[in-house]
């Protein structure tokens, strides 16, 4: 039996690490899935990002936990950030957790709880300080009105809890970076990380929110990995159905961050043209692969083999970060690609192997889109199974009748054009 409590140090303060079962099936024997509580401060309520931030200290997980774990994950469901009938709702992360609880997975899954929110300096490496402080000040209006819209051109909303919950979601990524990097120093097979967080982040531009996104969670983590851990070369793979314009904008002229996005051609927000390749010193380190409507598993298998893997092998990253959007699923209401559960399993398995070959296994996924709760939760669960080398459940979950023939000619043309532009 595992001990119920263990003590360890997190951000300089001792506290008990609680171990609890996360993956359970009602009526079955409790699974020993371990959860380590990384308490960052006694109480974050009422704290102001405008105040002087205390520098974050290195997260010290117990070495034996890091050696045993095969997945590290954090959840930040942002339950207070919610709008009735909005697709980006507070039901998304709980739906994923519910799906995980129904599966009999390996016990080597470690949840880090009560982690620190991102501090001002972390977020300000990506977003302007005027935006950060302006959003904090807007919380009083949100408190009075219940809900406000914070983006002039789209349905990005805020409630009175949005500011703190968005900082916490960004902090989840930072915590996972610390933990995965620490694990990579202990052995050759560090666990993969997954930030199950919302609001999503890849549309949030340096100057403000956009497309349901408040802070660029993956962009904040990328800069943190560079500044805190000296991981100079960061590769970001974004397979959300929509182009990650915010992430792209943040690093468009940066030669040390390679941003690669596959997305549906012509979808929101209309950015991510195939000939957008970066500028200045960053020319060549942005790769966009817009896919035609109806693209699915065939398209992504070709894209991985012919574009994603060769790009990573040439770039030689120190860490791979993934904007994992599940809205390209055939059942998702907000777009027109036809990925399946099996597509996401293939991507997770392939990216895991790529990270193992190129950067010592250092890899962290970040939840982005996905608005059909059933396809979202089952696809994330199958992603976990891929990380654990468990067989996919896609055959049980995917109905072939929902699919139609992919536009293979257009897919091949898009891939060949991207390969030509980037000399792959």
From TrEMBL:
User: Which Gene3D superfamilies does the record associate with it?
Assistant: Histone deacetylase domain
Protein name as catalogued: Histone deacetylase domain-containing protein
What residue stretches are annotated with the Histone deacetylase domain?
86-385
Q: Which organism is it from?
A: Panicum virgatum (Blackwell switchgrass)
Q: Superkingdom of this entry's organism?
A: Eukaryota
Q: Name one Pfam family in it.
A: Hist_deacetyl
Output the Gene Ontology terms for molecular function: histone deacetylase activity
- InterPro entries in the record, alphabetically? HDACs, His_deacetylse_dom, His_deacetylse_dom_sf, Ureohydrolase_dom_sf
Give GO cellular component annotations, separated by semicolons. cytoplasm; histone deacetylase complex
| CDD domains per the UniProt record, alphabetical | HDAC_classII (cd09992)
Co-factor requirement: Zn(2+)
* GO terms classed as biological process: epigenetic regulation of gene expression
Q: What PANTHER family does this protein map onto? A: HISTONE DEACETYLASE 14, CHLOROPLASTIC, HISTONE DEACETYLASE HDAC1-RELATED
